[in-house]
Predict the 3D structure of the following.
Amino acid sequence: MEKSFSARLLIGLFRVLACLPLRVLYLLSDMAFVMVYYIARYRRRVVDDNLSQCFPAMTAEERNGIRRRFYRNFCDTFVEAVKLLHISDSEMCRRMKFVNTDLIDNMLAQGKSVAIYFSHCGNWEWAPSITLHTAMHKGVEYCQVYRPLRNHAFDSLMLAIRSRFGSLSFPKSTVLRDIVMLRRDGIQSVTGFMSDQKPSHNDPTVVTMFLNRPTAFISGTETLARRLELAVLYWDMEKLGRGHYRITTRLLDDGSHAGEKGTLTKKYAAMLQDTIERDPAIWLWTHKRWKIPVTLQ
């Protein structure tokens, strides 16, 4: 679809901004932090409620420290995403490290397509740079599932950012069809699913204990993986320093799917909890994750 004038203008403006060195962009991030944290107080009540409910054993001072670091990371994530419009492969490889990518290559070598559970930890927008690190490329498409934004100009901007390293973006509503079409064309796929979002209306869910609270997780990722017999992996993300991240690939299922339904979703929830508890400030606490209370099934 041809981009609108407003979308082209917005992308052009951000491409100019992306030409600035990261050290300059981080100065802009520092200024944005003051605006977002102290002046606008963007979703401070949501963040405070989430932290107090998830970490009741912490002191208020400890939670306030997490909150402050979270907002700094939140602003950094935005400028780092913009930087994707103008960054070299070599700089990205220096800043974004991947561990255990041989798990992906091994599954592909066995003729299996792959589903990767991921989350809003660290800088998730840098994860598509995986294409710079894996050996299997011919006959393989790297993809990510996304929810289209209502603002078409910003939606076009984010699609431009996410395609920087050659990956495809599939809308959540059509991902099953899109992966099946790739398979029909003899193309394997490695698809990332951001499965830590609040389920949408009518989404199938699995309820499990997560961060001290009964939590509904989207089970569509598991359903799709079972239906298409995909190998399933988890990306464990760490922030090593400002502008430096590491993702460790971990195996959830080799494609046999022997366990009962809900097993994969609960395994993902447990791994994600470990990731968050290791460094709570890198998760997206502004999400209204528990807006609708649920009970254990």
In short: Residues 5-282 form one domain. Residues 186 and 261 are 28 Å apart (CA to CA). Strands lie at 96-99, 114-118, 140-146, 168-171, 188-194, 205-210, 213-218, 231-241, 244-253.
